[in-house]
Amino acid sequence: MRPAHPTEEAVGIEGYASEADGVGGRLRGRDDRFRVRELEAFPTELLDASTDAYPHLVFRATLSNWDTNDFAKRLSDALEMSRERVSWAGTKDKYARTTQLFSIDAPDLAPADLPEIDGAGIEPIGRAGRGLEFGDLAGNAFDIVVDDPERPENAPGITEELAAFAGDGGPDSGDGEDEAAEGDGQAIGVPNFFGQQRFGSRRPVTHAVGLEIVRGDWEGAVMAYLGGPTADEPEQTQEARRFVEDTRDWQDALEEFPRGLGYERSMLHELAGHGEEPDPDVFRAAIEKLPSNLQRLFVHAAQSYAFNRICSERLRRELPFDRPVEGDVVCFLDGDLSGELAVPDPDRSQRVTDRRVESVARHCARGRAFVTAPLVGTDTELADGEQGEIEREVLDELDLAPADFDLSGEFHSTGTRRAILVRTKIEVEHDPLEFSFALPKGAYATVVAREYMKVDPIDMG
Questions:
Q1: Residue 408 half-sphere exposure toward CB, CA atoms < 13 A
Q2: Whole-angstrom distance, CA of residue 310 vs CA of residue 395
């Protein structure tokens, strides 16, 4: 296993599936060189449908240089309503041109009332009986240009290695039965890691906050978010984080933290009213000052970190990703969503016994089944065999157990399982070097790009 960069190791990604040297370069020289389009899976009614039955207005937004949360806040401010009434199916990166769905819980809001926002093209498309929820999409299509590649001639060799890693299954299985087989390009596979942006592209701390929450250390969670300066932040921000680490003086820290760090400042305002040594409930209240989706993200990031560690260990042991070994848990194809993409359904799972290894491997080869690892939560059942050994070892090292996720509020999680391999068909163009591919929901374009580029994620753009 070729070792990953230290930046990636900090979020549990410890290696590459391909051994060849990368093409180098960087991403996002301009946001129009990293384009993302949601593959939608959310039915709507006509715009003139009854607002009594369909109170949610749904629109498609094409955003440039907008973080999803920040856009939702700007939109809700313009409409003079709570940000909690704005929903979306998937969070997108700021440094990209993204096209995605949003919904607004506003029966009295007409399409003409939607505001004009710089860097946002807004297209009303219908009304719905409920708001969008996280995961209400089939996947995303990507067109990514690599700027300043050093070794573009290495791309074909990496594609060959990733085609071998994908195994016999997926889009090129050749049985003519997979809808996922449509389209051009070479079939490849990569470990289904959670990408760097899941944890914070420039300051990857969301999993550290989440781990402290799940362990019940609310003060530790607050300090993981407020403290921990990184070299990629402005000097004033680094000094503010060092100040709060050294002093725990919440009131004076408000003078140190820049106005632009609104989330940190809202936490400090909560803490400042309770003296220098607040009790644990106050630290929790400070975390709960953050938007509800960010609160959920902390626990999800902790689960994602453990998942990455588990996949990294499976990769290190050279266990297959494209087919099961005895003791694995597999899930099956989501027939409702799998059109352009093969989308796994984690709610349809099966433990693989010795007698079933070969038959399940055939399902995997046809793109109908997927080997999984846990996103640990209260209802998580771990695998058996060597995969189960890996899962238990990683959780023990992190001092985590399924019961730890039995928390109140936004922090509770029942857990699920997630496919460890993501397959796609990739088209590679040269001059400029550009990759085009689609991934099922929850998979990250950067886990494909990293295999080709093999640079520090901070340098990717």
A1: 4
A2: 9
**Buried b / exposed e along 357-384 (16+ C-beta atoms within 10 A):** eeebbebbbbbbbbbbbbbbbeebebbb
Residue by residue, what is the 3-state secondary structure of 79-140? HCCCHHHEEECCCCCCCCEEEEEEEEECCCCCHHHCCCECCEEEEEEEEECCCCCCCCEEEE
Strands 97-105 and 34-40: parallel
Cα gap 32→459, rounded to integer Å: 18
**Structural contact between residues 437 and 425, judged by C-beta atoms closer than 8 angstroms:** yes
Cα distance between residue 272 and residue 153, in whole Å: 57
Q: Does pTM surpass 0.85?
A: yes
- What span, in angstroms and rounded, lies between the C-alpha atoms of 389 and 408? 30
Question: Would you name the residues annotated as active-site residues?
Answer: 93
Local confidence pLDDT in tens for the 461 residues of the chain: 999 999 999 999 999 999 999 999 998 767 788 999 999 999 999 999 999 999 999 999 999 989 898 999 999 999 999 999 999 998 887 888 999 999 999 999 999 999 999 999 999 999 999 999 988 999 999 999 999 999 999 999 999 999 999 996 544 444 434 433 345 789 999 999 999 889 987 789 999 999 999 999 999 999 999 999 988 899 999 999 999 999 999 999 999 999 999 999 999 999 998 877 788 899 999 999 998 889 999 999 999 999 999 999 999 999 999 999 999 999 999 877 656 688 899 999 999 999 999 999 999 999 999 999 999 999 999 999 999 999 999 999 999 999 999 999 999 999 999 999 999 999 999 999 999 999 998 899 999 999 999 999 887 76
Q: What SS3 state is found at 334?
A: coil
Contact 328, 352 (CB under 8 A): yes
- Residue 371 CA: distances (Å) to CA of 174, 349, 365, 437: 20, 10, 11, 22
For residue 392, count other CB atoms closer than 10 A to its CB: 14
